[in-house]
Amino acid sequence: MAILAPPPSLKFITNFVKRANELENSDPVISYYCKYYAIEEALAAKVHQTDPAAAEYITNLLDAVEKDKGNLNDQDTITDEMVGQAYVERFATRVFANADKDIINKKVTRTTASNLLAASNFLELLKLFGDPDQGLLDRIKYCKFHAARILKSYASGEDPNEYEPPDVTSEGHISEPESTRIGDLSTSVQRVSLDGTSSAHSVSSTPSLPIPSSPPPVALGFSPVAEASAPPLVFTPPLAAPPKTSASQSQSYHHEQKHQVSKTEVQQIMDEAERFSLAQKHSRYAISALNYEDVDTAVKELKAALKLLGENVI
Predict the structure, then answer these.
(1) In contact, 102 and 112? CB cutoff 8 Å
(2) What is the pLDDT of residues 26-52, one digit of tens each?
(3) Across residues 153-164, what is the average pLDDT?
C-alpha cells in the first residue's frame, strides 16, 4: 500500500517517502530503507513534539516499516547490517553511474536530473549504517548540484550539455566565472514534480562555493535543492543482491550497528515530550500566579509540574 504524503511539518522527508512508494514492488529492500531513513530524519527534527499530525504520521510510517521488516526477515539485506549496507551502496552507485554517464557523454536530459536527485536520496540512506565519509558527502553534493544546474538550464531555455567544468589552477583550486557559482542558483527555476506538473520554484541561495567539476571524490560544490522535486524516476536497479558474507566475516565486522527504533520506543519518546511540555506549562502558570501574589495557585501549579516530572509531593 502506498504511503500518503507527509504533513507540511515533515515536508523534508517527502522525497524519501516518494522513493519508498516507487520501489515498494520492484525493490522492497530499498523501499524499506527509504521509510526507515524518513523516520530517523523525522524523529531527529523533533517535529512530533509540537505537531500532533507529525506524531501520528511517524507512528503510521513506523507501522509500515515493521510490516516490511516482518515480510523481509528472511533476507540478509535486512538482518545483516553489513550485507544491507553493501546492497544499498550498490543500488545507489548504479543509479548514480547511469546519470553521471549522461553528464560525461553530454547526453543530459530532464531524466538525468531526476536520476541525480534519486541517486542523492539513495546515497543518503548509507548514513543509516554509520557516519558518512567525505567521499560520500562529496558525491551527494555532486548529484544535487548537477540536478539543480540541469533544471535551471531547461528553465532558462539553455542546453545543459553545453556546460564546461571549471579549470583547475596550478595550486589545485577551481576557478570559474562568477556567473557560474552556486550562489547564482537563487534565481527562480521551473519545478517539475513527479506527477508531471510544474510550477515556479525559487531555489534558496547559498554561499558562493566552487562548482563540482567531476565525479567524487573531487567534487567540491554544494547544491541548494536538497528537497527539489523531479520528473518521473527512471533508472536501472541492481540486477542482484551482493554475495552473502560468511559467518567469520560477520563476526569480524566491528562496526556498531545503528539501533533501530521500535514503535514502542517512539511512543515513549512522544509521551515523554508531552510530559515535559505539560510540566513547563504548569511552571509558567505558577510564575504567572506569583506575579499576582496568588500563592495558593502557584503552589498548586508547581506541585502539578513536579508530579509530572516524577517527584513525590505532599
Answers:
(1) yes
(2) 999 999 999 999 999 999 999 988 999
(3) 93
DSSP notation for the chain: -PPPPPPGGGGGGHHHHHHHHHTTTT-HHHHHHHHHHHHHHHHHHTGGGT-HHHHHHHHHHHHHHHHHHHHTTT-HHHH-HHHHHHHHHHHHHHHHHHHHHHHHTT---HHHHHHHHHHHHHHHGGGGGSPPPHHHHHHHHHHHHHHHHHHHHHHTT--GGG--PPEE-TTS-EE--GGGSGGGGGSEEEEE-TTS-EEEEEPPP----PPP-SSTTS-----S-TT---SPP-----SSPPPPPPHHHHHT--PPPPPPPPHHHHHHHHHHHHHHHHHHHHHHHHHHHHHTT-HHHHHHHHHHHHHHTT----
Cβ atoms of 34 and 20 closer than 8 Å = yes
Q: pTM higher than 0.70 for the full model?
A: no
